[in-house]
Amino acid sequence: MGGLTKEWFLLLVRQIFHTDYGMFSFMKDSRCHWFSSWKCDNYSEFQMVGTLMGLAVYNSIALDIHFPLYCYRKLLTPPTVPSDPNAFVGMATATLDDLQQVMPDLAHGLSELLSYEGNIEEDFYLNFQVFQEEMGVVKSYNLKPGGDKIPVNKQNRKEYVQLYIDFLLNKSIYKQFAAFYHGFHSVCASDALM
């Protein structure tokens, strides 16, 4: 059943994905793991985790890791590693359904915003800015230049939702996921994942 190799992978993965370590968050509502958006100086840990996941796939070892399907789509974007090390990787187009897999409550709220018939500007008082907690500190990010000064209304709410989803699932975790992507693909070709 895998023996010592499988046990080694299971113990290592259990430690890496522990929330105290801070690399991954366990989303209670969706019961899946997602990349933490905290910024660090060295992303080699994410590359190491990607390499370990690639080794597990290569060795046909099933691990108790619950990534949303969107994560696997990101791993296949692009399906082969570009020759240019600075090329963008893992930037798959994200939808409300993809966010639903990771953060169902937020996806529900954004869906209600899209169907809201009242005065969005006065009732919600939103702008093109998001707030995220990172290591106990709340930080604000503009979804587009000058976003803190652009109110969300009926005309631009679809753009707001799309930029918010892209920020959460792509931009806020880009460096973490890019390192993970390169680590995974250094061991496991994408046709195995397909």
What does this structure look like?
It comes from Characodon lateralis. Keywords: Transferase, Ubl conjugation pathway. Its EC number is 2.3.2.26. It catalyses: S-ubiquitinyl-[E2 ubiquitin-conjugating enzyme]-L-cysteine + [acceptor protein]-L-lysine = [E2 ubiquitin-conjugating enzyme]-L-cysteine + N(6)-ubiquitinyl-[acceptor protein]-L-lysine. By secondary structure, the protein is mainly alpha-helical. It contains nine helices and four strands; from the N terminus they run αββαααααββααα. It has helices at 3-16, 44-58, 69-75, 96-102, 104-115, 120-124, 157-169, 174-187, 190-193, and strands at 24-27, 32-35, 129-134, 137-142. The strands form two sheets. It has a two-stranded antiparallel sheet with strand order 1-2. A two-stranded antiparallel sheet has the order 3-4. The model has no long low-confidence stretch (mean pLDDT 89).
Percentage of residues in DSSP E strands: 5-15%
- Report the sheet with the most strands, covering strand number, pairing sense and barrel closure: 2 strands, antiparallel
Unreliably modeled segments: none
Radius of gyration: 18 Å
- Characterize the overall form: elongated
Structural class category: mainly alpha
Helix content: 40-55%
Order of helices and strands: HEEHHHHHEEHHH
* Average of per-residue pLDDT values: 89
Total strands? 4
Pfam families: HECT (PF00632)
EC number: 2.3.2.26
Protein name: HECT-type E3 ubiquitin transferase
Keywords: Transferase, Ubl conjugation pathway
